Amino acid sequence: MTNNIQDQNKPTMSNLLSAVSNAASESTSIKVGDKIEGKVIFVVKNQVLIQIENIGIGVIRGKELYTDDYISKLQIGEIVEAMVLALDSELGALELSFKSIGHDKVIAEIKEAIDNKTTVDAKIREVNRGGFMVKVRGIEGFLPASLLSPTHAIKQIGTEDKSLLNQMKKYVGQIFKVKIISLNPDSESIIVSERAVNDELITEKLNKYKIGDVVEGVIAGAVDFGLFVRFDENLDGLVHISEIAWKKVDDPRNEYKKGDKVTVKIIDIDKENRINLSIKQTMTNPWTQFVKASKVGDAFKGKIGKIVSYGVIVVNEDTDIQGLCHISQISDPILDNPTKIHDLLKLGDIKEFKILSLDNSEKLYLTLLEDFDKALQIQTEIVAKQEADKAVHMQAREDRAREAMERQNQEREVSEASNE
To answer: Which of 87, 174, 392, 395 has the most CB atoms less than 10 A away?
Structure first.
């Protein structure tokens, strides 16, 4: 295509018109409304000339050019289709239109793109609270903010809607790769998705991975419930808080920061390509060795990591093994108020405890009582009470379920009787 007509070696429109006889006025083989084919021989912003074999020259101009986007794709020598508006014009050529032909062609291309899930270019025209007004091949469309790719995702900053709109406005004029997901046949407007393109790329990349693979990644972000890890350029996965370490993690942000390099294991990929990862499964579980090397009555040196209403959480910093010292195991006599724990123990205190019980369920119970036999007796009573409470709770739940079923049966019987 050429838009530069200043070059003296290139023909002007008047040259082309005078070089071809006005066969259009003499032709009886065509009429107004006919669709004809011709070869593009001249293109400028507001006019296009095509040569129609055995007929002459046709001119398309003004609003009959359809759209700038449509015209910008025309190439000299390309065979195009147009509709006849008049058999003669003041230029001595057929007066033609791309408008109807171009529109039908673009609509057909849009439908084909939907059927084939083809990726197309969408130009961002303007924004509103819900997303972007776009144009695809001259057709108006809408890109919802919820269907943006992670690269362009809009995040709320503050409480004002202006923060969202200001972020969105920076994309006006840009071209996004999208997939057309629907066409409204009445308004001939479309809905597009950028996320669909991103999902397709992710699917292609994920095909080379399987559950169990271990990969290297970088911490992309930390939230209350876990860490986001990026690997293989633009693949993001979640390390749930329970999969960060073998020890209990209260705040992921205290364990890793953005940019930290980590080794992760892929533990799940769901149907929506959400990737679940684990850091701890790439490490040896310290509990396995601890259980083998320890027994009831052994000393356990640890730091007070957390004080709760029912006792203290104790952490051995060498192994990351955690245990619970119940409020009943802190002093003799037993503390009658959880607030009194703070009078005896402080966060960060390092104490030597004794192991009351440990097993493969990774539960470790500790005591500070000097009378170990009494500590064991208290522990036995606590476990028995917990089991009894659990049994009562289960029985109550079964009773409620049975009562609900009986009510449903009674209501059904009443309903059946009334219908008779």
So the answer is: 87
Confirm whether 181 is domain-assigned.
yes
| pLDDT score recorded for residue 26 | 46
Residue 5 lies in a domain: no
Distance (Å, whole) CA 27 – CA 65: 24
Could you tell me which of 19, 34, 46 has the C-alpha nearest to residue 94? 34
Q: Which value, in Å, is the radius of gyration of the alpha carbons in the chain? A: 38
User: pLDDT tens digit string along 379-406?
Assistant: 999 888 888 988 999 999 998 998 888 8
Give the HSE-up count for residue 52: Cα atoms under 13 Å, Cβ half-sphere. Answer: 26
CA 139, 142, 146 angle in degrees (round to 5)? Answer: 155
Question: Which pTM value belongs to this model?
Answer: 0.52
Establish whether the linkage from the previous residue to 333 is cis, with ω within 30° of 0. yes
Q: Is the same domain home to 194 and 216? A: no
Tokens of 417: 């009787």
Among 139, 167, 199, give the residue marking a domain's end: 199
Q: Answer with the one of 252, 282, 312 that is the final residue of a domain.
A: 282
Residue 394 maps to a domain: no
The candidate with the shortest Cα–Cα distance to 138, out of 189, 71, 67, is 67
Per-residue pLDDT of 275-323, as tens digits, reads: 999 999 999 888 888 998 999 999 999 999 999 999 999 999 888 899 9
Domain holding 132, by residue range, is 117-199
Asked if 69 and 91 sit in the same domain, the reply is: yes
Flag whether 265 is in a domain.
Answer: yes
Q: Which residues, other chains included, contact 87 with Cβ-Cβ below 8 Å and sequence gap of 6+?
A: 24, 25, 27, 30, 31, 32, 94, 95
| Other beta carbons within 10 Å of 233 | 7
**Residues 84 and 121 placed together within one structural domain of the fold:** no
Per run of 10 residues, the mean pLDDT along the chain (length 420 residues) is 46 54 51 90 87 88 76 85 82 81 81 93 91 90 90 62 77 94 88 91 88 95 92 89 90 94 95 91 90 93 94 91 95 93 95 91 92 94 88 90 88 76
Q: Which residues pair with 86 in a beta bridge?
A: 95
Return the CATH number at 323. 2.40.50.140
